[in-house]
């Protein structure tokens, strides 16, 4: 008479499979879509920066909160799948810091650009059946200097604010996602609040990008000025992210390895 061997309960528990590349890239598309749709949609339809412009008059404060909240909810929804970058500068900065594989940077950036452009195109479609169909609103939502700066700031001021703000943003991301140093479940809250804070500083100066995908998504519909100045909103955030990634890796990660 044969006897069936007992089944080991531990052997029947399966560990969750790592997300596939397709899942990661789809998460980046959707997360970037949410980010751009939320912040640019607020700027176009609800900001009403001056009396008589219509909208809900949420102003700069409303746009800043829309940016932070959009990133917060997207990070909670898709962060566990892709890491929740939603920003080419973030992907590059994390790679510089040694937290992300360089081979994945290109596909992530492509996915982020697709998500951003899909969002601005969707907003254009919504705008098309409104009382006034004028794509000039995308010019007002585009980032830049001089004529594109809400406060009339020049190239140097815009370059500095975009570089410094993105570096601050990356420092926070690297800090709140460091293993053993922070509560991971609260990381999206810290990241979203940081974006809100730095946006309040940068919106009057540059219209607050910190994200090349967001800048490109609005510039393609923003006219010649927006297209002509979009280079700054690509270069400055990436520079800020590289600076933050390099400093964090050299100072904090190195110190952690030495103390281990």
TrEMBL record:
Query: TM segments?
Result: 29-51, 58-79, 85-102, 109-133, 153-174, 186-206, 226-248
Its predominant location is membrane
**Which InterPro entries did the record assign?**
Aquaporin-like (IPR023271), Aquaporin_transptr (IPR034294), MIP (IPR000425), MIP_CS (IPR022357)
Report which superkingdom the organism of origin falls in.
Answer: Bacteria
Region described as Disordered: spans on this chain: 1-21
| Compositional bias annotation for Low complexity | 9-21
Coiled-coil annotation: which residues?
none
Its annotated compartments are:
Membrane
Keyword annotations of the record: Membrane, Transmembrane, Transmembrane helix, Transport
* Gene3D superfamilies in the cross-refs: Glycerol uptake facilitator protein
Describe its membrane topology.
Multi-pass membrane protein
Tell me its family: Belongs to the MIP/aquaporin (TC 1.A.8) family.
Output the PANTHER family linked to this UniProt entry. AQUAPORIN NIP1-1-RELATED, AQUAPORIN NIP2-1
Q: What is this protein called?
A: Aquaporin Z
Q: Per the UniProt entry, what species is this protein from, by scientific name?
A: Agromyces allii
Q: What is this protein's gene name?
A: aqpZ
């Amino acid at each position: 008479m044969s006897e069936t061997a007992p089944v080991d309960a531990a052997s029947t528990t399966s560990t969750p499979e790592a997300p596939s590349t397709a899942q990661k890239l789809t998460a980046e598309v959707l997360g970037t879509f949410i980010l751009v749709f939320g912040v640019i949609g607020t700027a176009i339809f609800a900001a009403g920066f001056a009396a008589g412009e219509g909208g809900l008059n949420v102003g700069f404060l409303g746009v800043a909160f829309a940016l932070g909240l959009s990133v917060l909810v997207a990070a909670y929804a898709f962060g566990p799948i892709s890491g929740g970058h939603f920003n080419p500068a973030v992907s590059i900065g994390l790679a510089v810091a040694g937290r992300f594989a360089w081979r994945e940077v290109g596909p992530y950036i492509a996915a982020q650009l697709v998500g951003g452009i899909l969002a601005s195109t969707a907003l254009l479609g919504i705008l098309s059946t409104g009382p006034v169909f004028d794509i000039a609103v995308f010019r007002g939502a585009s980032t830049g200097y001089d004529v594109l700066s809400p406060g009339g700031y020049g190239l140097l001021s815009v370059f500095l604010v975009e570089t410094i703000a993105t570096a601050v943003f990356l420092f926070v991301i690297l800090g709140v996602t460091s293993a053993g140093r922070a509560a991971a479940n609260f990381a999206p809250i810290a990241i979203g609040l940081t974006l809100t804070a730095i946006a309040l500083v940068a919106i009057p100066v540059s219209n607050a990008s910190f994200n090349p995908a967001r800048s490109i998504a609005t510039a393609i519909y923003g006219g010649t000025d927006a297209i002509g100045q979009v280079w700054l909103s690509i270069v400055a955030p990436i520079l800020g992210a590289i600076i933050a990634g390099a400093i964090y890796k050299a100072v904090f990660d190195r110190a952690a390895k030495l103390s281990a």
